[in-house]
Amino acid sequence: MTRFADLLKTYLNKTPPRLAKDAGKSDMLTLAQLGLDIRRLGKVEMQEFLRIIGMNIRDELVERFENGALRGVISVDAVLGTHLGPRSPNTILTYLYRLAGAPRRRRRTIKNAGSGCSTMDANNNNELIPWHQTPLSATKA
């Protein structure tokens, strides 16, 4: 998913191209560049990108993760700030845009998803602590 987010990040701060009859050369060039960037992902990843961009986040998370709490946390992240629910169409796209806007150091890959929830340690050492070993002071907001 981070590769798809990186693809969208290049277009995040650009003006969306016009699709009407009066679209200029710069609009057509932007669309052509987006198509070329999607094509450069490779056949398999391009098909996966085109498959998931219209899906809802819930269906994708059910396919990938067994842990219900993990699915819930990622679903909330995908729809936070929108008037959508996890089963609304295109919520994967909102999640990809959230990933694209996040600084690279803040992105985390989910390791060992079946082991339960984890949190960052209080000293920000980039170490994950299993939820059941988290001190009470780290869990307070």
Structure characterization notes:
The chain has 141 residues and is mainly alpha-helical. The protein is built from seven helices and two strands. Helix content is 48%, strand content 4%. The radius of gyration is 18 Å and the shape is globular. It folds into two domains: 2-108, no CATH class; 111-141, no CATH class. Helix 1 (2-9) crosses helix 6, helix 4 (57-64) runs antiparallel to helix 5 and helix 5 crosses helix 6 (91-101). It has helices at 2-9, 25-39, 43-52, 57-64, 68-79, 91-101, 136-139, and strands spanning 118-120, 128-130. A two-stranded antiparallel sheet has the order 1-2. The two termini are 29 Å apart. Strand 1 (118-120) and strand 2 form a beta hairpin.
Task: Based on the model shown, name its key terms.
7 helices, 2 strands, mainly alpha, two-stranded antiparallel ribbon, 141 residues
